[in-house]
Amino acid sequence: MSNHETSETKPEVITLFGATGDLAKRMVLPAFWELHTRGLLPSDWRLIGNGRGQVSDADFREQVKESLAEFGPGEVPTNQWGEFASRLSFAGGGFSVDDPGELPAALAEASAELGEEVQRIFYIALPPVAFEPTVKALGAHDLMQSARVIFEKPYGTSLQSFCALDELVHSVLEEEQIYRIDHFLGKEAVQNLHVLRFVNRMIGSIWSCAAIEQVQIDVPETLGVADRAAFYDATGAFRDMIATHLFQVAAEVAMEPPLSLGTEDLQRARDQVLARFRPLDPGEVVFGQFDGYRELPEVADDSTTDTFAAVRLWIDSDRWRGVPFLLRSGKRLHRSRQLLSLVLRAAQGPFPEARRSVLQLSMSGAGELSASLTMKKPGPELELVTVPIELDVTALGGPSDESLPPYASLLHDVIVGDRSLFTTGAGLEHAWSVAQPVLDDPPEPLPYAPQSWGPKAADELTDGVGWFTQA
Ligand SMILES: NC(=O)C1=CN([C@@H]2O[C@H](COP(=O)(O)OP(=O)(O)OC[C@H]3O[C@@H](n4cnc5c(N)ncnc54)[C@H](OP(=O)(O)O)[C@@H]3O)[C@@H](O)[C@H]2O)C=CC1
Ligand SMILES: O=C1O[C@H](COP(=O)(O)O)[C@@H](O)[C@H](O)[C@H]1O
Q1: What role does this protein play (predicted)?
Q2: Residue 38 marked ligand-binding
Q3: Where are the alpha helices (DSSP H) in 324-419?
Q4: What is the pLDDT of residues 214-225, one digit of tens each?
Q5: Ligand-binding site membership of 46 (annotated)
Q6: What is the CA radius of gyration of the chain?
Q7: Which of 93, 197, 252, 374 lies 20 to 30 Å from 366 when distance is taken between CA atoms?
Q8: Is 245 a catalytic residue?
Q9: Side by side, which strands form the sheet with 148-151?
Q10: What domains sit in the chain, N to C, each tagged with a CATH number?
């Protein structure tokens, strides 16, 4: 598993395709600043922003400063800004097979400054439709040699488009050069799953169908989609969250213990369990669309895009036979949470009033852990009471202060060449195969009121247990 030491100090030149975009501003550029201020970038580095327009270096630096003010730490003190800013530049004019724009010259200039031994990183933070032309252009202009290439998600939008993209990517890159991002794998709390489960026997020993009745991975969001309606309308909640992030989290939860925490063993363990995911049955999927969605600019009047999706997933392994994994996410819901709930079977024994216990892990921030236990209520009667036990990891101090936001953590992994928290082609092929029946035969989205918990039909997927996020 990645740690936060920069073990490789080779100078790096990072090209950020889509540098003027939403993701760059909100996540990627603040992540660079975070790594810079923590001393986690190599001793020498350059970041070249790329886009179709012409942006001067000075204007690009100003844009970066503004994005740090809005989405990063706030106003950057002048005495810290100059050194960082001097490493930023912009190569405009786009980048295509026919016309590479200013990028090759900018890369050559950076190499001249940093020496020929530079490590090149290309970050493709572009809309999915631009992935293939950009990869073709990187191949055509011979820039891929020993480069590392980061692909944003979604990497493919169906089984067929995934296969076509991956084939193209492999025609110019070795698998070791490819870093397919799923930023949920970079979340501190998701990584903590390995530790909780493989270090604490108390937790590891309940990790199977013998004790667990149901697993819920629930990411409701109050957030809307107005800022990225065009992208969202072509994507929907199922692709945006379920078939991508939540499948990967489900794989982290359900994997068999890897032989080691090395890249190959971890990726293999994740891929092996993804191969056991049963293709989804559209009859066990609920789609929703919030009222008012179709009135948003850039959304078609008759759009059938899902802004909510809930699925019941089955994993055909001995460990998880018969245990439903319930995955849910949606926009403009009642509350934002990122919660993993392991619902334990009610104990059999002398107490007729058996109750379920739940072990919950928040996937956001450093992650809080909570559990519920049933105890005897103090008093003369034998009365049972279920009490929550909560562990706020941020209250531990020290290590939690060192946690990196997921984009910074994954970017750092790319810099040091650690691929363990990135998805593989084989794993994504399984994931898209599991999703494909729903893409072929999507359920009609049911309307729901903004600020609600989505369509009631999604509650039925829980077989009367209910969504713990709503409790
Ligand atoms: N935004 C988010 O919150 C998240 C986004 N992602 C993923 O990150 C990627 C980028 O997302 P986001 O930044 O929101 O996207 P944007 O729509 O903001 O696009 C990013 C930039 O790409 C350039 N661009 C747009 N269309 C094209 C095109 N057809 N060909 C070449 N360049 C183009 C534009 O720059 P210019 O005009 O300067 O050329 C634009 O500023 C996507 O794959 C998305 O799925 C993943 C997680 C979250
Ligand atoms: O990739 C995406 O993730 C975000 C949720 O991510 P988080 O960083 O808030 O955990 C989601 O809102 C967005 O729609 C999706 O594209």
Answers
A1: Catalyzes the oxidation of glucose 6-phosphate to 6-phosphogluconolactone.
A2: no
A3: 406-416
A4: 999 999 999 999
A5: no
A6: 23
A7: 374
A8: yes
A9: 88-91, 45-50, 12-17, 119-124, 148-151, 178-180
A10: 12-152 (3.40.50.720), 185-404+422-470 (3.30.360.10)
